[in-house]
């Protein structure tokens, strides 16, 4: 019985490792297929969508066909999302440059405002992909939910931070694994933490 359990566990672990490596490969290929700039967000959306299905223990379709189909479907909206984040990042960058010319209270106010905006920007960027693939929302609503997700469900943030630290330690010990698992492992950690929050919302809503 114990040997069967170990054998099954080993098989599942190998299956996850293989899937994450293939996901990472497809993410890189489809990002490059879009010229990096236009391929990044659609490829990332496809990667998160597939990981979501795995975490929900659904029977996923063939990985390549799913990735190709989702990448095409998300191309326009994904790049609109990219444009929003790129624009917000540019505004924050300009504020940082302008802030250097200010003195006194104006500098302090600008520093506080830019710091808060930067933190919210990072949070939104981290959680926008789980929210995008889990909910059928407008881009504006998706960003709003992504910003407030870790605040409404702190466990999501705790799991993500712990996962990031574990991944960082793993890649520090085994640097050659970085190009094969960096994107997919990061997405797996973020999606896992986010699923706890999504289940909490479903429970509260009674659905």
From TrEMBL:
<keyword id="KW-1133">Transmembrane helix</keyword>
<keyword id="KW-0812">Transmembrane</keyword>
<feature type="transmembrane region" description="Helical">
    <location>
        <begin position="25"/>
        <end position="51"/>
    </location>
</feature>
<feature type="transmembrane region" description="Helical">
    <location>
        <begin position="109"/>
        <end position="129"/>
    </location>
</feature>
<feature type="transmembrane region" description="Helical">
    <location>
        <begin position="180"/>
        <end position="198"/>
    </location>
</feature>
<dbReference type="Pfam" id="PF04854">
    <property type="entry name" value="DUF624"/>
</dbReference>
<keyword id="KW-0472">Membrane</keyword>
<dbReference type="InterPro" id="IPR006938">
    <property type="entry name" value="DUF624"/>
</dbReference>
<feature type="transmembrane region" description="Helical">
    <location>
        <begin position="141"/>
        <end position="174"/>
    </location>
</feature>
<feature type="transmembrane region" description="Helical">
    <location>
        <begin position="79"/>
        <end position="97"/>
    </location>
</feature>
<protein>
    <submittedName>
        <fullName>BH3684 protein</fullName>
    </submittedName>
</protein>
